[in-house]
Amino acid sequence: MNKLKIGIGAVIAVLLLLVFLWIRSATKGDHLDFGTDNEIDVTPTQITSIKAIGEWEFLSISAEELVDTLRKGIFSNDELARIYYGTLRLGVNMHQARPGWIKTTGDSVTVTLPKIGLLDKDFIDEARTKSFYESGKWSTSDREAMYRKAHRQMMRHCLTKENLQAAEANGREQFERMMQAMGFAHVNIIFEH
What we know:
alpha+beta, 4-stranded antiparallel sheet, 38% helix, rod-shaped
């Protein structure tokens, strides 16, 4: 009986060894390998969604202009002085971005943005416009001429080189942060001029 148990145990051990060797030879050359892909791809959907935002505001400037006019008469002078308020918003319109405005290479990205400019030409808040002083009769066309003068003055006082540079710096910072959040280590932001 002991010899029978030893014989059965030996047969089972040999069978297990043969199964082990068969599995090992069948899987020889097959292996599982893990690696990393350091290439970051910006998908067309991401590019479309960035561009679809349209206008990106980088700097907002509140402005106040006092505009006056004087009309000399024979017996008296007519005078009109008004205060105009407005908010000029500087940024880029992504619909003006040229094809290929974003280029990636490995963990680097170059983004070429349109020129910084005024996003909305109707920036005067007419509801806040106040007549500071008014004497005489003034027509709608007289008031329209003052509005245009206030518009020109706000543009001249707010669209300065310094404000455009500040808007560009803010835009560069915002886009750098966004691209770094997408995984890019090296970000180059260029504005068209």
